[in-house]
Amino acid sequence: MATPGFTLTFEELKSQLAKKQYAPIYLLHGEEGYFIDELVKLFEDILPVEEQAFNLYTMYAPQVSADDVMDACRRYPMMSEYQVVILKEAQVPKIDYLNKLHAYASNPSPSTILVICARGALVKPKDLLAEMKKNKGIVFESNRVKSSNMNNVIATLINSKGLKVDQKSLSMLSDFIGNDLSRMYNEIEKLALVIEPNGMITPEAIERNIGVSKDFNNFELVNAIAQKDSLRVYRIIEYFRANPKNNPPLLTVSQLFKFFSNLLLIHFAKDKSEKALLDELGFKFPWQLNDYRIGIRNYNAFKTIEIISAIRAFDSMSKGVDSRQNEFDLLKTLMFKILSAEGNIVI
Predict the structure, then answer these.
(1) Positive/negative CA dihedral, 6, 9, 15, 20
(2) What is the 3-state secondary structure (H, E, C) of 11-60?
(3) Is-contact 59 69, C-beta < 8 A?
(4) The pTM is what?
(5) N or C: which end of the chain has fewer CB within 10 A?
(6) pLDDT tens digits for 325-344?
C-alpha cells in the first residue's frame, strides 16, 4: 500500500484509486459535498459486492467513539485482501475526536483502508495529520467551484463525456445550474444519454431535455443588451415575469453585473489583444469575448460606470431599501436605465 504525496486533487485521487494504489488513511473534507460523495462511492467499490457484507464498515462519528473506529480498523478482513472503514460526519464532533485517531494513524493496519469524511467543512486535526503525513496518508480538500469558473468546469466535464458545446448552450447550462455540482453532473449525464458520441450540445437539446428556453434566458438577454436591441430585451424580461421560478431577477442582475464589470475591465485594459483579455477575465475560450466586442462599441467607460451604479441601486431596492416595487418592475426599469445610459457620472 504505497501512495506518493500527501494532498491530492479530485482527479489525482480518482486516478490512483483506478490504479489500485491505496493509502492506509484518507481525510476527505471541505465545503463542496459532491466531490466527497463521488469519492466515497469509489472507496466502496474497492471491494467486490460479495465481499462488502463482511469487509465494508460505514460508521458515523456522532454515533461511535474514536476507540470504536480504531477497533474496527484493527480487525482483519474476511476472505479479502482489504477491509474498508468509512467514517462519515467527522465534522460534527470536536476536533479532539479526530486527534485521538492519531494513535491508529501512527501504526495503521496494512489491510485496512480508513476513509474519514468531513462533508461540508474543513477540519484540522493537527495530531492526526502529523501521523498521516509520516505514514503515507492522503488528504483531499473539496473546495466549492467559484461562479466565475463554472463555465470552464462545465465545458471540461462535457469534453470528458466526448461531447462538444457551443457558447450559448454553455451559458444556458451555467445560468440554470448555478454552482450546484451535483445538479450539473446529473443534467450533463442526462444530455450524454441522448446525444451521439462526439455530438454537439445545442440550445435545442437543452430546451428539449432540461426545460430551459433557448430564446428567453440570461445569455440571450446579455446579448440583446450588448447589441442595444431594446425590443428583444423587453420581450425577454416579460417572459421572465411570466416564468419567475426559472428566472429569478437576482440571478439575472448578477449576470448583468458580471458583464458590465468585465466590460469596464476591458475599457481600462492596457493590452486589448485576445490572449490578454482572456487572461484578464479568466476566460478559457475566445468566443466568450463575443458579447464584449459588441458591448464595448455601444457602451463607453462612462456609460458602463453609470450602468454599474444603476445595478447596485437595483440590488438595494430589490431588498426593500427606499422601494416597495415588484422585482420585475424594478428589473424593467433597470433595462431602461441600461439602454438609455448617457454616461452621466459624478466624479
Answers:
(1) positive
(2) HHHHHHHHCCCCCCEEEEEECCHHHHHHHHHHHHCCCCHHHHHHHEEEEE
(3) yes
(4) 0.66
(5) C
(6) 788 999 999 999 999 999 87
